[in-house]
Amino acid sequence: MADQSKQDRDLARTIPLKAIGLRLLELLQADDETGVADAVDVALSQGAYHMASDIHLEPWTDSLSLRYRLDGILQQIAIIPKDFQPKIIARIKVLSELVVYRKDLPQDGRIDREKTTCARPMRVSTVPTIRGEKTVIRLLGESHDVYRLDALGFQPFVVDSLRELITRTQGTLMLTGPSSSGKTTTIYALLQEMMYLQQNTTNIVTIEDPVEYSIEKVSQIQVNPHVEFTFANALRSILRQDPEVIMVGEIRDAETARMAIQAGLTGHFVISTVHSGTACGVFTRLLDMGIEPFLVASSLTGVLAQRLIRLNCAQCTDVYSPDPILLQHFGLDLDDGPFYKGKGCDACQGIGYRGRASAGEFLTVTQAIAERVLERPTTAQIHQIALEQGMETLQEDALKKARKGTTTIEEMFRVLPFLTS
């Protein structure tokens, strides 16, 4: 009930996207000492109320651009006169406790939830450009924002497979996908499932950069490369802390990869992420990093590749005819329809999409795949074995969503451009 009340209050405070720019100009041009501070608060708070993941303030030649990333897409919100740029950036630096007068080097900071009317913590990054400092603000969440595993959009059999996997006492689960593909949300959902299933008796330790959600009863560690507290050093230290479940936010180097893989063989359950295009590509990625094939084959128990796909707005979805070229790209034609798309309405701010769901490709590491990994196979060879064993690809999962009317063929092509029929 408390969460619902907060959502109702946020909705009441929300300004339509098209009107935010006008409101900012009114505040900035007012003969008031608090005009800039109020304008910055409106920009930040409206980003939170509209559920933006990031807020971009980018200096252009004669203006300052304000954009929100909504459901993975940057949307232009306001064009602010150049004269206000220094004051706006300075205000954000004050809120995030950055050095205001240093404009010649990148800075990273954090805005605490008490400093804005939306009460959301935010991570701030500034970098100098030839037209001034560009600022990107990531809106962070709290523990109550973490989703349940079965509410992320995965197919039921993927959820069941993940639930079975996390009951094991050792092994390594890898997640893969590009930035902003939902990996962190999935990992937190998995950790919450593990805490529920094991009645909080498990020692769970995470290593993150940065800690984006705060979860009770989980020891969360934030790396700090400035003092050489890296993923590898943190992992080496926590292995002496009697952990049962270890989450490594990202594998970036061979040392971290080797330690994580070995931990999955020595009585720990490890969850981590690595960059690769598909689930099958994770094996060749680890092998290319110099990890011995027998370690990969013995430790890796499952791989989940995922993407976030925008969903049609439930208020304005209607039948439409996709571009025939896109249909052909996915091996379809108009007779395979009907297909659906949001037309745009007040509920979705005229965008046609509202919300996102995960498309997943889950690979269980069977004996056949483990034996094949020992031979240093190509990604295509592992992919063929996985298909023979019934793995559903990212494209097949996304296509199911399009056939049900929850997303569009265009969105599939945007998110999965490298996949062909």
SSE blueprint and pairings:
Blueprint: H1 2-13, H2 17-29, H3 35-49, E1 54-59, E2 63-70, E3 73-81, H4 85-95, E4 107-111, E5 122-129, E6 132-139, H5 156-165, E7 171-176, H6 183-197, E8 204-208, E9 219-222, H7 231-238, E10 245-248, H8 254-263, E11 269-273, H9 281-288, H10 293-299, E12 300-312, E13 317-320, H11 324-329, E14 339-342, E15 353-364, H12 367-373, H13 379-388, H14 394-404, H15 409-415
Parallel strand pairs: 7-11, 7-12, 8-9, 8-10, 10-11
Antiparallel strand pairs: 1-2, 1-6, 2-3, 4-5, 5-6, 12-15, 13-14
Summarize the structure.
The chain has helices at residues 2-13, 17-29, 35-49, 85-95, 156-165, 183-197, 231-238, 254-263, 281-288, 293-299, 324-329, 367-373, 379-388, 394-404, 409-415; strands at 54-59, 63-70, 73-81, 107-111, 122-129, 132-139, 171-176, 204-208, 219-222, 245-248, 269-273, 300-312, 317-320, 339-342, 353-364. It has 421 residues and is α/β, with parallel strands linked by helices.
Search tags:
single chain; 421 residues; alpha/beta; 7-stranded mixed β-sheet; 6-stranded antiparallel β-sheet; globular
Commentary on this structure:
By secondary structure, this protein is α/β, with parallel strands linked by helices. The chain has helices spanning 2-13, 17-29, 35-49, 85-95, 156-165, 183-197, 231-238, 254-263, 281-288, 293-299, 324-329, 367-373, 379-388, 394-404, 409-415, and strands at 54-59, 63-70, 73-81, 107-111, 122-129, 132-139, 171-176, 204-208, 219-222, 245-248, 269-273, 300-312, 317-320, 339-342, 353-364. It is 36% helix and 24% strand. It has a seven-stranded mixed beta sheet, with helices on both faces. The chain starts with a helix and ends in a 6-residue tail after the last helix.
